[in-house]
Write a structure and sequence with these properties.
By secondary structure, this protein is of the alpha/beta class. It contains 13 helices and 21 strands.
Protein backbone atom coordinates (compact mmCIF):
# COMPACT_ATOMS: atom_id res chain seq x y z
CA UNK A 1 0.00 0.00 0.00
CA UNK A 2 1.17 3.51 -0.85
CA UNK A 3 -0.43 6.86 -0.12
CA UNK A 4 -0.02 10.38 -1.42
CA UNK A 5 -1.32 13.63 -0.02
CA UNK A 6 -3.71 15.98 -1.75
CA UNK A 7 -3.51 19.58 -0.53
CA UNK A 8 -5.70 22.31 -2.00
CA UNK A 9 -7.21 25.68 -1.14
CA UNK A 10 -9.37 28.45 -2.58
CA UNK A 11 -9.21 32.24 -2.42
CA UNK A 12 -12.86 32.41 -1.34
CA UNK A 13 -15.22 30.21 0.64
CA UNK A 14 -16.64 27.32 -1.36
CA UNK A 15 -19.50 24.98 -0.44
CA UNK A 16 -20.97 21.83 -1.92
CA UNK A 17 -17.72 20.62 -3.45
CA UNK A 18 -17.27 16.95 -4.32
CA UNK A 19 -14.21 14.82 -5.09
CA UNK A 20 -14.10 11.77 -7.35
CA UNK A 21 -11.16 9.43 -7.79
CA UNK A 22 -11.03 7.11 -10.78
CA UNK A 23 -9.41 3.67 -10.76
CA UNK A 24 -5.67 3.46 -11.38
CA UNK A 25 -5.36 2.23 -14.97
CA UNK A 26 -2.32 0.22 -16.11
CA UNK A 27 -0.19 2.01 -18.69
CA UNK A 28 -0.59 -0.83 -21.22
CA UNK A 29 -4.28 -1.41 -20.45
CA UNK A 30 -6.13 -4.50 -19.34
CA UNK A 31 -5.70 -3.99 -15.60
CA UNK A 32 -6.77 -1.45 -13.00
CA UNK A 33 -6.47 -0.95 -9.26
CA UNK A 34 -9.07 0.81 -7.17
CA UNK A 35 -7.81 3.65 -5.02
CA UNK A 36 -9.27 5.10 -1.84
CA UNK A 37 -9.82 8.78 -1.09
CA UNK A 38 -10.00 9.87 2.54
CA UNK A 39 -10.18 13.12 4.49
CA UNK A 40 -7.64 14.16 7.13
CA UNK A 41 -8.87 15.79 10.32
CA UNK A 42 -6.52 18.37 11.82
CA UNK A 43 -6.47 19.68 15.34
CA UNK A 44 -4.68 22.52 17.04
CA UNK A 45 -2.25 22.19 19.93
CA UNK A 46 1.23 23.15 21.05
CA UNK A 47 3.73 21.19 19.00
CA UNK A 48 7.45 20.78 18.56
CA UNK A 49 8.41 22.64 15.39
CA UNK A 50 11.06 20.19 14.19
CA UNK A 51 11.94 16.84 15.71
CA UNK A 52 15.40 17.02 14.20
CA UNK A 53 16.46 20.21 15.99
CA UNK A 54 17.50 18.51 19.19
CA UNK A 55 17.41 20.07 22.64
CA UNK A 56 18.08 23.79 22.75
CA UNK A 57 18.25 24.82 26.38
CA UNK A 58 14.70 25.18 27.70
CA UNK A 59 12.76 22.31 26.14
CA UNK A 60 9.46 24.18 26.41
CA UNK A 61 10.91 26.90 24.17
CA UNK A 62 10.65 24.41 21.31
CA UNK A 63 6.85 24.23 21.58
CA UNK A 64 4.80 26.46 19.31
CA UNK A 65 1.09 26.67 18.59
CA UNK A 66 0.17 24.81 15.41
CA UNK A 67 -2.11 22.40 13.65
CA UNK A 68 -1.29 18.98 12.34
CA UNK A 69 -2.99 15.97 10.71
CA UNK A 70 -4.31 13.22 12.92
CA UNK A 71 -7.51 11.34 12.04
CA UNK A 72 -8.03 9.62 8.67
CA UNK A 73 -11.77 9.78 7.96
CA UNK A 74 -13.95 8.39 5.15
CA UNK A 75 -14.50 10.93 2.40
CA UNK A 76 -17.75 12.88 2.82
CA UNK A 77 -20.25 13.11 -0.03
CA UNK A 78 -19.53 16.83 -0.21
CA UNK A 79 -17.28 19.29 1.54
CA UNK A 80 -16.52 22.98 1.88
CA UNK A 81 -13.40 25.10 1.74
CA UNK A 82 -12.63 28.06 3.97
CA UNK A 83 -10.94 30.85 2.06
CA UNK A 84 -7.13 30.71 2.06
CA UNK A 85 -7.10 27.67 4.31
CA UNK A 86 -5.44 24.50 3.04
CA UNK A 87 -7.42 21.27 3.15
CA UNK A 88 -5.87 17.81 3.24
CA UNK A 89 -6.95 14.53 1.66
CA UNK A 90 -5.04 11.32 1.14
CA UNK A 91 -5.18 8.86 -1.74
CA UNK A 92 -4.18 5.26 -0.98
CA UNK A 93 -3.74 2.38 -3.40
CA UNK A 94 -2.95 -1.27 -2.70
CA UNK A 95 -1.59 -3.48 -5.45
CA UNK A 96 -2.53 -7.14 -5.57
CA UNK A 97 -0.11 -9.99 -6.22
CA UNK A 98 -1.34 -10.30 -9.78
CA UNK A 99 -0.90 -6.61 -10.65
CA UNK A 100 1.43 -6.23 -13.66
CA UNK A 101 4.57 -4.26 -12.89
CA UNK A 102 4.67 -0.77 -14.32
CA UNK A 103 3.03 2.65 -14.16
CA UNK A 104 -0.62 3.29 -13.30
CA UNK A 105 -2.60 6.52 -13.52
CA UNK A 106 -5.78 7.76 -11.85
CA UNK A 107 -7.55 11.10 -12.09
CA UNK A 108 -8.92 13.15 -9.21
CA UNK A 109 -11.77 15.48 -10.16
CA UNK A 110 -12.94 18.30 -7.91
CA UNK A 111 -16.46 19.45 -8.81
CA UNK A 112 -18.42 22.52 -7.76
CA UNK A 113 -21.88 22.50 -6.24
CA UNK A 114 -23.37 22.29 -9.73
CA UNK A 115 -21.39 19.17 -10.62
CA UNK A 116 -18.97 20.92 -12.96
CA UNK A 117 -15.31 19.84 -12.86
CA UNK A 118 -13.23 22.79 -11.69
CA UNK A 119 -9.94 20.97 -11.14
CA UNK A 120 -8.42 17.71 -12.34
CA UNK A 121 -5.17 16.22 -11.10
CA UNK A 122 -3.48 13.04 -12.31
CA UNK A 123 -2.06 10.68 -9.72
CA UNK A 124 0.53 8.02 -10.57
CA UNK A 125 1.47 4.78 -8.86
CA UNK A 126 4.31 2.50 -9.87
CA UNK A 127 4.11 -1.24 -9.12
CA UNK A 128 7.48 -2.87 -8.51
CA UNK A 129 8.21 -6.24 -10.07
CA UNK A 130 8.21 -8.18 -6.80
CA UNK A 131 5.70 -9.12 -4.13
CA UNK A 132 5.83 -8.45 -0.42
CA UNK A 133 5.24 -11.52 1.77
CA UNK A 134 1.90 -12.24 3.41
CA UNK A 135 3.70 -12.53 6.74
CA UNK A 136 5.44 -9.28 7.76
CA UNK A 137 9.13 -9.72 8.48
CA UNK A 138 8.67 -7.71 11.67
CA UNK A 139 6.66 -9.38 14.41
CA UNK A 140 4.38 -7.16 16.49
CA UNK A 141 2.25 -7.09 19.61
CA UNK A 142 -0.11 -4.13 19.97
CA UNK A 143 -2.94 -3.80 22.46
CA UNK A 144 -6.35 -3.71 20.79
CA UNK A 145 -9.71 -2.05 21.48
CA UNK A 146 -13.40 -1.99 20.66
CA UNK A 147 -16.03 0.74 20.60
CA UNK A 148 -19.79 0.98 20.20
CA UNK A 149 -21.18 -1.51 17.73
CA UNK A 150 -17.69 -2.34 16.44
CA UNK A 151 -16.32 -5.46 18.09
CA UNK A 152 -12.86 -6.39 19.25
CA UNK A 153 -12.66 -8.58 16.14
CA UNK A 154 -13.46 -5.59 13.91
CA UNK A 155 -10.58 -3.65 15.41
CA UNK A 156 -8.31 -6.70 15.35
CA UNK A 157 -8.90 -7.16 11.61
CA UNK A 158 -8.39 -3.45 11.01
CA UNK A 159 -4.97 -3.56 12.68
CA UNK A 160 -4.04 -6.62 10.61
CA UNK A 161 -4.61 -4.50 7.51
CA UNK A 162 -1.85 -2.26 8.89
CA UNK A 163 0.44 -5.27 9.50
CA UNK A 164 -0.06 -5.22 13.28
CA UNK A 165 -0.95 -8.18 15.51
CA UNK A 166 -2.79 -7.68 18.79
CA UNK A 167 -2.00 -9.09 22.22
CA UNK A 168 -4.89 -11.54 22.29
CA UNK A 169 -6.87 -13.21 19.52
CA UNK A 170 -10.52 -12.32 18.83
CA UNK A 171 -11.53 -15.73 20.21
CA UNK A 172 -10.32 -17.95 23.01
CA UNK A 173 -7.46 -20.12 21.77
CA UNK A 174 -9.46 -23.28 22.44
CA UNK A 175 -12.33 -21.95 20.30
CA UNK A 176 -12.17 -23.43 16.81
CA UNK A 177 -12.73 -19.95 15.37
CA UNK A 178 -9.27 -18.99 16.66
CA UNK A 179 -7.61 -21.51 14.33
CA UNK A 180 -7.95 -19.33 11.24
CA UNK A 181 -6.32 -16.40 13.03
CA UNK A 182 -3.45 -18.47 14.38
CA UNK A 183 -2.89 -19.78 10.84
CA UNK A 184 -3.18 -16.36 9.21
CA UNK A 185 0.34 -15.40 8.04
CA UNK A 186 -0.40 -11.76 8.87
CA UNK A 187 -0.70 -12.73 12.54
CA UNK A 188 2.89 -12.73 13.77
CA UNK A 189 2.35 -13.12 17.54
CA UNK A 190 -0.32 -13.62 20.17
CA UNK A 191 -0.43 -14.22 23.92
CA UNK A 192 -1.16 -17.72 25.22
CA UNK A 193 -1.52 -16.52 28.82
CA UNK A 194 -0.29 -13.54 30.79
CA UNK A 195 -0.51 -11.29 33.79
CA UNK A 196 -3.96 -11.13 35.36
CA UNK A 197 -3.31 -7.64 36.73
CA UNK A 198 -2.06 -6.23 33.43
CA UNK A 199 -4.13 -4.54 30.73
CA UNK A 200 -7.43 -5.04 32.58
CA UNK A 201 -6.77 -8.77 32.76
CA UNK A 202 -7.22 -9.38 29.03
CA UNK A 203 -4.40 -11.94 29.07
CA UNK A 204 -5.31 -13.64 32.34
CA UNK A 205 -6.05 -17.37 32.31
CA UNK A 206 -6.76 -20.04 34.88
CA UNK A 207 -4.36 -22.96 35.28
CA UNK A 208 -6.70 -25.17 33.29
CA UNK A 209 -7.05 -22.59 30.52
CA UNK A 210 -3.29 -22.04 30.40
CA UNK A 211 -2.63 -25.75 29.98
CA UNK A 212 -5.35 -26.15 27.35
CA UNK A 213 -4.16 -23.08 25.43
CA UNK A 214 -0.55 -24.22 25.46
CA UNK A 215 -1.35 -27.76 24.37
CA UNK A 216 -3.43 -26.55 21.43
CA UNK A 217 -0.82 -24.00 20.31
CA UNK A 218 1.97 -26.57 20.51
CA UNK A 219 -0.02 -29.02 18.39
CA UNK A 220 0.75 -26.89 15.32
CA UNK A 221 4.31 -25.91 14.41
CA UNK A 222 3.29 -22.56 12.89
CA UNK A 223 1.14 -21.63 15.89
CA UNK A 224 3.96 -22.53 18.28
CA UNK A 225 6.21 -19.96 16.59
CA UNK A 226 3.69 -17.22 17.36
CA UNK A 227 2.41 -18.02 20.85
CA UNK A 228 3.93 -16.10 23.79
CA UNK A 229 3.64 -15.88 27.55
CA UNK A 230 3.51 -12.30 28.83
CA UNK A 231 3.35 -12.19 32.63
CA UNK A 232 5.37 -9.13 33.60
CA UNK A 233 5.67 -5.61 32.28
CA UNK A 234 8.45 -3.09 32.99
CA UNK A 235 9.61 -4.79 36.19
CA UNK A 236 11.56 -2.60 38.62
CA UNK A 237 13.13 -3.27 42.00
CA UNK A 238 11.43 -6.17 43.70
CA UNK A 239 9.32 -6.53 40.57
CA UNK A 240 12.27 -8.27 38.97
CA UNK A 241 11.42 -11.28 41.11
CA UNK A 242 8.05 -11.47 39.36
CA UNK A 243 9.88 -12.38 36.16
CA UNK A 244 11.45 -15.31 37.98
CA UNK A 245 8.37 -16.45 39.89
CA UNK A 246 5.96 -16.24 36.93
CA UNK A 247 8.41 -18.17 34.75
CA UNK A 248 8.72 -20.85 37.42
CA UNK A 249 4.96 -20.92 37.85
CA UNK A 250 4.13 -21.52 34.20
CA UNK A 251 6.99 -23.95 33.49
CA UNK A 252 6.09 -26.02 36.56
CA UNK A 253 2.43 -25.92 35.55
CA UNK A 254 3.18 -27.08 32.01
CA UNK A 255 5.98 -29.45 32.97
CA UNK A 256 8.32 -27.96 30.36
CA UNK A 257 10.64 -25.02 29.80
CA UNK A 258 9.76 -25.01 26.10
CA UNK A 259 7.98 -21.66 26.15
CA UNK A 260 8.47 -18.25 24.56
CA UNK A 261 8.49 -15.72 27.39
CA UNK A 262 8.49 -11.94 26.92
CA UNK A 263 8.67 -8.99 29.29
CA UNK A 264 9.14 -5.38 28.24
CA UNK A 265 11.70 -3.69 30.51
CA UNK A 266 12.32 0.00 30.67
CA UNK A 267 15.91 0.26 31.81
CA UNK A 268 18.84 -2.00 32.53
CA UNK A 269 18.96 -0.96 36.17
CA UNK A 270 15.94 -1.28 38.43
CA UNK A 271 16.29 1.43 41.08
CA UNK A 272 18.81 2.96 43.45
CA UNK A 273 18.69 -0.09 45.74
CA UNK A 274 19.53 -2.47 42.90
CA UNK A 275 22.28 -0.19 41.68
CA UNK A 276 23.75 -0.03 45.17
CA UNK A 277 23.72 -3.83 45.31
CA UNK A 278 25.19 -4.12 41.83
CA UNK A 279 22.09 -5.86 40.45
CA UNK A 280 21.83 -5.66 36.67
CA UNK A 281 18.24 -6.35 35.59
CA UNK A 282 19.25 -7.82 32.23
CA UNK A 283 21.48 -10.35 33.98
CA UNK A 284 18.84 -11.03 36.61
CA UNK A 285 16.08 -11.94 34.15
CA UNK A 286 18.37 -13.70 31.67
CA UNK A 287 17.45 -17.26 32.80
CA UNK A 288 13.74 -16.58 32.45
CA UNK A 289 13.41 -14.62 29.20
CA UNK A 290 13.96 -15.70 25.60
CA UNK A 291 12.07 -12.93 23.82
CA UNK A 292 14.02 -9.81 24.77
CA UNK A 293 12.05 -6.57 24.66
CA UNK A 294 13.75 -3.49 26.12
CA UNK A 295 12.71 0.07 25.39
CA UNK A 296 14.36 1.32 22.21
CA UNK A 297 16.92 3.54 23.99
CA UNK A 298 18.68 0.37 25.12
CA UNK A 299 20.38 0.66 21.73
CA UNK A 300 21.75 4.13 22.48
CA UNK A 301 25.10 3.10 23.89
CA UNK A 302 27.08 4.98 26.49
CA UNK A 303 29.83 5.44 23.94
CA UNK A 304 27.34 7.46 21.87
CA UNK A 305 26.00 9.42 24.84
CA UNK A 306 23.23 7.09 26.00
CA UNK A 307 22.56 6.50 29.70
CA UNK A 308 20.27 3.46 29.63
CA UNK A 309 22.90 1.11 31.04
CA UNK A 310 24.85 2.17 34.14
CA UNK A 311 28.61 2.40 33.71
CA UNK A 312 29.04 -0.53 36.09
CA UNK A 313 26.87 -2.75 33.90
CA UNK A 314 28.70 -1.72 30.74
CA UNK A 315 32.09 -2.41 32.30
CA UNK A 316 31.02 -5.83 33.55
CA UNK A 317 28.68 -7.05 30.82
CA UNK A 318 29.12 -4.74 27.83
CA UNK A 319 26.65 -2.58 25.91
CA UNK A 320 23.12 -3.91 25.44
CA UNK A 321 23.37 -4.32 21.63
CA UNK A 322 26.31 -6.69 22.15
CA UNK A 323 24.43 -8.58 24.83
CA UNK A 324 21.40 -8.88 22.56
CA UNK A 325 23.61 -10.28 19.79
CA UNK A 326 24.82 -12.95 22.21
CA UNK A 327 21.24 -13.81 23.18
CA UNK A 328 20.37 -14.12 19.50
CA UNK A 329 23.28 -16.54 19.06
CA UNK A 330 21.83 -18.79 21.74
CA UNK A 331 18.48 -18.81 19.92
CA UNK A 332 16.57 -16.00 21.64
CA UNK A 333 14.39 -13.48 19.80
CA UNK A 334 15.20 -9.77 19.89
CA UNK A 335 12.33 -7.27 20.11
CA UNK A 336 11.96 -3.72 21.43
CA UNK A 337 9.20 -1.30 22.36
CA UNK A 338 8.31 2.38 22.58
CA UNK A 339 5.58 4.12 24.59
CA UNK A 340 5.51 7.61 26.14
CA UNK A 341 9.26 7.11 26.18
CA UNK A 342 11.77 7.55 24.80
CA UNK A 343 10.99 11.24 24.73
CA UNK A 344 12.09 13.81 22.18
CA UNK A 345 14.14 13.49 20.10
CA UNK A 346 14.26 9.74 19.80
CA UNK A 347 12.20 8.29 16.96
CA UNK A 348 8.77 7.40 18.28
CA UNK A 349 5.09 7.57 17.32
CA UNK A 350 4.32 11.09 18.53
CA UNK A 351 1.84 13.42 16.85
CA UNK A 352 4.24 16.35 16.66
CA UNK A 353 6.87 14.44 14.71
CA UNK A 354 7.11 14.62 10.96
CA UNK A 355 5.59 11.46 9.51
CA UNK A 356 8.97 10.38 8.17
CA UNK A 357 10.35 10.14 11.72
CA UNK A 358 7.74 7.47 12.49
CA UNK A 359 8.94 5.52 9.45
CA UNK A 360 12.51 6.04 10.67
CA UNK A 361 11.69 3.92 13.73
CA UNK A 362 11.42 0.83 11.53
CA UNK A 363 14.66 1.68 9.72
CA UNK A 364 16.29 1.92 13.14
CA UNK A 365 14.76 -1.45 14.00
CA UNK A 366 16.56 -2.92 11.01
CA UNK A 367 19.73 -0.96 11.81
CA UNK A 368 19.79 -2.57 15.26
CA UNK A 369 18.82 -6.03 13.97
CA UNK A 370 15.62 -6.18 16.00
CA UNK A 371 12.89 -8.70 15.10
CA UNK A 372 9.69 -7.26 16.55
CA UNK A 373 7.90 -4.20 17.93
CA UNK A 374 5.62 -4.09 20.99
CA UNK A 375 3.28 -1.19 21.78
CA UNK A 376 1.01 -0.93 24.80
CA UNK A 377 -2.17 0.75 23.52
CA UNK A 378 -4.02 2.10 20.53
CA UNK A 379 -7.05 3.67 22.29
CA UNK A 380 -5.74 5.91 25.06
CA UNK A 381 -7.55 9.25 25.55
CA UNK A 382 -10.67 8.24 23.65
CA UNK A 383 -12.59 9.63 26.62
CA UNK A 384 -11.04 13.04 25.87
CA UNK A 385 -12.37 13.20 22.33
CA UNK A 386 -15.74 14.74 21.58
CA UNK A 387 -17.39 17.39 19.42
CA UNK A 388 -15.93 20.01 21.72
CA UNK A 389 -12.47 18.69 22.55
CA UNK A 390 -9.64 16.65 21.13
CA UNK A 391 -7.01 16.13 23.78
CA UNK A 392 -4.49 13.40 23.00
CA UNK A 393 -1.32 15.40 23.83
CA UNK A 394 1.53 13.75 21.88
CA UNK A 395 -0.63 10.81 20.77
CA UNK A 396 1.11 8.27 23.00
CA UNK A 397 -1.05 5.14 23.09
CA UNK A 398 -3.55 6.57 20.58
CA UNK A 399 -3.12 5.12 17.10
CA UNK A 400 -6.77 4.43 16.26
CA UNK A 401 -9.98 6.38 16.66
CA UNK A 402 -13.64 5.30 16.86
CA UNK A 403 -15.39 6.72 13.84
CA UNK A 404 -18.44 7.37 16.01
CA UNK A 405 -16.60 10.35 17.49
CA UNK A 406 -16.67 11.98 14.05
CA UNK A 407 -20.05 10.92 12.68
CA UNK A 408 -18.94 7.61 11.17
CA UNK A 409 -18.81 4.03 12.44
CA UNK A 410 -15.96 1.62 12.98
CA UNK A 411 -12.22 2.15 13.43
CA UNK A 412 -10.38 5.01 11.76
CA UNK A 413 -6.60 5.21 11.46
CA UNK A 414 -4.43 7.99 12.73
CA UNK A 415 -2.14 9.69 10.23
CA UNK A 416 0.71 8.20 12.27
CA UNK A 417 -0.64 4.68 11.78
CA UNK A 418 -0.41 5.24 8.03
CA UNK A 419 3.26 6.14 8.44
CA UNK A 420 3.86 3.11 10.66
CA UNK A 421 2.31 0.84 8.02
CA UNK A 422 4.72 2.31 5.49
CA UNK A 423 7.55 1.69 7.96
CA UNK A 424 6.57 -1.98 8.21
CA UNK A 425 6.59 -2.15 4.41
CA UNK A 426 10.05 -0.56 4.44
CA UNK A 427 11.21 -3.22 6.90
CA UNK A 428 9.93 -5.92 4.54
CA UNK A 429 11.92 -4.37 1.69
CA UNK A 430 15.07 -4.34 3.82
CA UNK A 431 14.78 -7.93 4.98
CA UNK A 432 13.95 -9.14 1.45
CA UNK A 433 17.03 -7.36 0.12
CA UNK A 434 19.18 -8.82 2.90
CA UNK A 435 18.15 -12.34 1.92
CA UNK A 436 19.29 -11.59 -1.64
CA UNK A 437 22.50 -9.58 -1.23
CA UNK A 438 23.42 -9.78 2.46
CA UNK A 439 23.13 -7.40 5.39
CA UNK A 440 26.33 -5.45 4.67
CA UNK A 441 25.07 -4.25 1.28
CA UNK A 442 21.69 -3.27 2.72
CA UNK A 443 23.27 -1.36 5.60
CA UNK A 444 25.02 0.94 3.12
CA UNK A 445 21.57 2.18 2.14
CA UNK A 446 20.15 2.13 5.66
CA UNK A 447 22.95 4.42 6.81
CA UNK A 448 21.54 7.10 4.51
CA UNK A 449 18.46 7.11 6.75
CA UNK A 450 19.89 6.42 10.22
CA UNK A 451 23.26 5.82 11.83
CA UNK A 452 22.20 5.85 15.48
CA UNK A 453 19.32 6.36 17.87
CA UNK A 454 19.55 10.15 17.62
CA UNK A 455 20.98 10.19 14.12
CA UNK A 456 18.21 9.92 11.54
CA UNK A 457 16.79 11.93 8.68
CA UNK A 458 13.77 14.18 8.99
CA UNK A 459 13.58 14.53 5.20
CA UNK A 460 11.00 12.24 3.62
CA UNK A 461 12.79 12.49 0.29
CA UNK A 462 15.82 10.75 1.76
CA UNK A 463 13.69 7.84 2.97
CA UNK A 464 11.79 7.58 -0.31
CA UNK A 465 15.04 7.54 -2.29
CA UNK A 466 16.57 4.93 0.03
CA UNK A 467 13.45 2.76 -0.20
CA UNK A 468 13.55 2.97 -4.01
CA UNK A 469 17.23 2.03 -3.93
CA UNK A 470 16.39 -1.06 -1.88
CA UNK A 471 13.62 -1.95 -4.34
CA UNK A 472 16.10 -1.78 -7.21
CA UNK A 473 18.48 -4.06 -5.27
CA UNK A 474 15.67 -6.61 -4.87
CA UNK A 475 14.73 -6.50 -8.55
CA UNK A 476 18.31 -6.64 -9.86
CA UNK A 477 19.31 -9.45 -7.49
CA UNK A 478 16.23 -11.49 -8.36
CA UNK A 479 16.85 -11.07 -12.10
CA UNK A 480 20.47 -12.21 -11.72
CA UNK A 481 19.58 -15.41 -9.89
Amino acid sequence: TESCQVLFSATENREGLTAELSAFEYEFGGYSIDGKLEWIYYYSTSVLPDASLGYRGDRQANFVKGEYPEVVLPMAESFELTANRTQHMVISVTSGKDAPAGMYRASLDIKDSGGQVIKTAYVYAYVWDFTLPDAPYSASLFCNASYGQSTYEDYYNYLLDYKLSSYVLPYEITDSRADAYMSDPRVTAFVIAGGKDMYAGIMGATDEETIANYQKVMSNEDWAKKGLFYYTDEPYGAGLYNVKTTYEYVTNLLGTTNIRNITPFGQSYADEECQAKGIDSVKFIEPYINVWCPISIAYHTRAEGGTWSPARSVLEYGEYPDRAAAYRERGDEIWWYVCNAPDEYYANLFTWYQGVVIRDLMWQQYFNNVDGLLYYAVSMNWDKISKYQFDIFNGDGTLLFPGEKFGYSGPCASWRLVQLRDGFDDFDYLRMAEELVGREAVMKVVNKVTTGMLEYTADYRVVEAARDEIAKIIIDAAENR
